[in-house]
Every structure is written in structure tokens, then in C-alpha cells.
Amino acid sequence: MGPLLLPWYIVLIVSIPETFFIVRLGFRLFNVDIDFNKVLILTLITAVLSVFIRKLPLAFGFHTLILTITLVLLCKAMLKMRLWNCFVSILVGVLILGVLESTLLPLFQSVTSTNTESLVIEPWLNVVYTFPLLIVMNILSLLSKRYNLVIFDLNLNED
Fold it and tell me: Which residue in 55, 69, 133, 146 has the most C-beta neighbors within 10 A?
């Protein structure tokens, strides 16, 4: 199965908030606070790149892999952090989004009587289905901050 051929503006509308919450939650779970403006710039660059990467004729899943690696490298360059710290933080954020998508999207599709083809035919469904995922990621981020829930404190690992 090839990539979903979504209009570029849908990719941007979905990619920007998804990437923002991947970075925000991923780094939060490792007790790393990063500047909002840097996250925003990182998110915008990644979103623009995602428009082009999603057009590549790659097998299912490779777009996500390329975008994840791109985001890790951008984090390394912009945040001046260790590559490993960027990698684990981004990977955890991506994994959380993946788990949420794989559990919630089938539920949304069953409630709305849609399927994967509907996401291509009616691209705005991608935006609608993304909002609950982002709300859950934001709640997880807020809970992590409020209750100081961390997987591992990467600040302990700094030189």
C-alpha cells in the first residue's frame, strides 16, 4: 500500500500539532524542558519536510521512519543536545502517538462508519480524527508535568 495522497494543507494541519506534541510529550517524559519557540520552529520545519517526504513512493511505514529520523536530527542541531537524548525522547513521543492512533482510529472509524479509503476521499477526516489524539497527548504531557512522571531523567546524564 502506498502513501495516503493527502493535500499538502491537510498534511501541514495534521503534521504541525502532531509533531509539536510528539516533541513536547517525548521530552517531558525524560524531564527535559525545551523552549517553546524552538519546538515551534522544529515543528514547522518538520511539517514542511513531511509534505515532500509523504510524496515519496515508499512502502507503508517508511515515511514515518524518515520523518522520525529527520526530527531527531533537527532536534540535535537546534537544541544542541546529545543525539541519544533526542532519539529516545522523539521515539517515545512517536510510539505514544502510534499506540493512540492504532487504538483510537479504528474506534473513530467504526463510530463514523468510515474506512481508510475515506481518509483519502474526505481528507478533512484526518484533521477531525487527529484532534482527540492530540487532546490525549496534551493530557498525558500535563499529567507528566504536574505529577513529575518521568521515564528517566536525562538531566542526570548531562556532562
Answer: 133
For 150, the grid coordinates are 518521568
CA–CA separation, 47 and 140 (whole Å): 22
Model confidence pLDDT, tens digit, residues 110-136: 988 888 888 778 888 888 999 999 999
The alpha-helical segments, DSSP class H, found in the chain are 8-28, 36-53, 62-79, 83-111, 116-121, 124-146
Q: Give which of 15, 22, 35, 18 is closest to 80, Cα–Cα.
A: 35
* 15 touches 46 (CB < 8 A): yes
Contact 26, 92 (CB under 8 A): yes
Q: Which amino acid is at 23?
A: V
